[in-house]
Design goal:
The protein is mainly beta and about 100 residues long. The two termini are about 25 Å apart. Helices cover about 5% and strands about 50% of the residues.
Length: about 100
């Protein structure tokens, strides 16, 4: 489990910064379901609170503001691959795929 802050971009435009999230590893069987990705590249993402003015959508890019990807030496990047779900209390749950380099 990682607790960090992220920046969320959609089609190159930043829609949110300094968003508090939790990133958890996903069960390997479930991870293989999403994009047929390698299970170690798929994670559950929990946005602790999102204001009513925005939500997380499939294909949104999430950049970890604190953690470095060991392969690239750059900030770790993820992409929403499932359909994130927003709840009445303002939190969002979704599935993300870690990727390296620009999309």
């Amino acid at each position: 489990m990682i607790e960090t802050q992220v920046t969320i971009t959609r089609k190159g435009a930043t829609i949110a910064k300094d968003v508090d999230v939790q990133i958890d590893t996903k069960n390997e069987m479930m991870a293989a379901y999403y994009n047929k990705a390698h299970p170690y590249d798929v994670f559950n993402l929990y946005v602790k609170y999102a204001p009513p003015t925005w939500t997380l959508l499939r294909q949104d890019e999430i950049t970890d503001q604190k953690n470095i990807d060991e392969l690239t030496g750059n900030l770790t990047q993820y992409r929403a691959v499932g359909r994130p779900q927003k709840f009445d209390d303002g939190h969002i749950e979704g599935v993300v795929n870690q990727f390296t380099g620009p999309s």
